[in-house]
Specification:
The chain has about 90 residues and is mainly beta. It has a single domain, classed as Leucine-rich repeat, LRR (right-handed beta-alpha superhelix) (Alpha-Beta Horseshoe), CATH 3.80.10.10. It is built from 1 helix and 4 strands; from the N terminus they run ββαββ. Strand 2, helix 1 and strand 3 form a beta-alpha-beta unit.
Length: about 90
């Protein structure tokens, strides 16, 4: 499946399954998870999205401890991560 942009904002999402985007690993460039109820960035779910350029996780419940950022070795193209309006 080739999905270029996926917007899951405003859905009250609290967690993201580690395999949620596994079929989109080479096509997904823009992932919008804004305005949900995430308490941490779902690194396990996005770590193999090799085409990902922009990740939007603003307006969630992410605090400092939810930011623990692993190396983005699997995401060499990621150039922006929007974290605005979190806790």
């Amino acid at each position: 499946m080739n999905v270029f942009r996926l917007s899951l904002g405003y859905n009250r999402i609290r967690t993201v399954d580690p395999a949620a985007f596994s079929s989109l690993d080479s096509s997904l460039k823009y992932l919008n998870l804004e305005n949900n109820q995430l308490m941490r960035i779902p690194w396990e779910a996005i770590q193999n999205l090799s085409a990902l350029i922009h990740l939007y996780v603003g307006s969630n419940l992410i605090q400092d401890e939810g930011l623990s950022m692993p190396l983005l070795d699997g995401n060499p193209n990621t150039t922006s991560i929007n974290l605005t309006c979190n806790l």
